[in-house]
Task: structure prediction
Amino acid sequence: MFHVSLRYIFGIPPLILVLLPVASPDCEIEGKNGEEYRHVLTVSFEILAPIGENDSNCLNNEHNFFKKHSCDDDKEATFLKTAARKLKHFLNTNIHEELKHHLSIVSQGTLKLLNCTRKDKGKKQASLGEAQPTKNLEAKKSLKEQRKQDDMCFLRMLLQQIKTCWNKILRGTKEH
Amino acid sequence: MGSHACSPLFLALRMTILGTAFGMVFYLLQVVSGESGYAQNGDFEDAEPDDYSFSCYSQLEVNGSQHLINCAFDDPDVKSNNLEFEICESLTVNSCLNFNKLQERYLLKTEKFLLIGESKVCVKLRGKIVTCKTIKIIEIVKPEAPFNLKVIYRKEANDFVVTFNISQKKYVKKLIHEVAYHQEKNENDWTHVNLSSTKLTLLQKKLQADAMYEIKVRSIPLADYFQGFWSEWSPSFHFKTPESKGEMDPVLLIVSMLSFFCVALMFILACVLWKKRIKPIIWPSLPDHKKTLEQLCKKPKKNLYASFNPESFLDCQIHKVDGIQARDEVEGFLQDTFSPQLEESEKQRPGGSVQGTKHAVITPKPFRGDAPLGCLARNVSACDAPELSFSRSPDCRAGGKNEPPEDQGLLVGPGTTNGTLSPPFPFQSEILTLNPATQGQPLLTSLGSSQEEAYVTMSSFYQNQ
Result:
């Protein structure tokens, strides 16, 4: 009995230590007054607005990313962090340098404002569905197949979702 | 022996003390010479550490999407040969960026500023960081100087329109501009105007006429998100104000016009009211009784007329002639009978008791003449009014009260001892008695004669005075 009770007693702290990072928020949104968003990110969003504008299939083609990640309540920071990281992938694509520069501002600016303390690289890859080699390959294949059509559409939708999510955060801040 | 044994030890001690003293003096001399700037070797170790404090400003979108950061040491004497600047953090790249040196300034032109968060600018000496400063690029913004400053004179509006241009930016959109202008002969007398637009109107009246002016403008970010410093002044623009056309100040013009109208109004009023109001006050006319009486009596009696309209005699008692004649006969009879008694009683009682007797005896007399006289005289011109008021008005009033009309005349006449007033009444009563049945013109003739008598009396009175 004594051993059993000791096992329970000494087993609880490690459990707490394991669960604590999961339960606590890893991102603290800075700039909730919206100054940075209004004066810096909005400029980049406006410059990036023409991306995918001429593609008529953009609206009908919903990317898997948005099925997995959405800007739901209490998940805004997580969604923005994931979306901002996803934007970085487009910096290697063949787009105009100015667009790349503003994509970089949106991506890094969002991450800076989120002020995320935990850098979960493995989790990041998993959340994007690109961590596991098999899935990564599948994703690459699908991306290769649809890149010409879908890349700009996805980027456009991603930017729109990020913008919408920022607006939601700032609107909620104003209401409070 | 003891003294000899102690002497070497004593000498050694003295030498030690002397050596220490010399050492201290030498050290002090070295320190003093070092502080006085007599360092021989010129190494950094002996010189004061340099002040590497520096200041920076940023200019956003100076060349397309490229931004510029410009830093310089606050002390211009800093030996900057081996010094470098670098900026880290809040960049779109993970590495730090190095500045380029241009004379005494360090510049970095790049588009890799994140414009969110703080950056760290460090000074490096031979690759080693000497000092660092945390800055926010967005809070050290120095806008570009406005350009194309123009001043256009609008003759119709009597003003000057100042216009200038600024670079259109995506980030720093809101600026405050300061326009400064001065008359060229007054070097330091600058007038400053702040505005948010790029157009300013200067009223001509606020500027000196026929003078040369210099104007310039600069900008600063409106402190909402982007903050910073004043830009450089734009190139000055010189303009000349037109000559004055002798235009008056509107306030002065209004005051002068009002004053003129007031004076004109007073002049008109003076002219209108001169005879009636003003002259009598300034030169009051002395009354001349003689002239007054002359005018009174020589005035033609144009309005004198006799009227038998009954309405003219509403306030007078009218008696039928038949009744009066009958009464006259009776009275004549009674008068003959009782006149001696009456005379006796009047002599005995000259007071109020006579009144009742008078009623009985002399009543008919006024009925015959006095009442018509009073009522007729009312139609006489104003010239007769003062004279006739003695005999007319009281009679009419007496008649209205149903009192014997002759009472007043008889009471005043005999009872009055005043010589000046007594003549009209005896005359009047006499005339009336002598002409009991006369009407109209004869009556008025007698009235005129009474006035002449009054005139004679008043003239004598005037001469006596």
Residues 20-24, 121-132 of chain A have pLDDT under 50 and may be disordered.
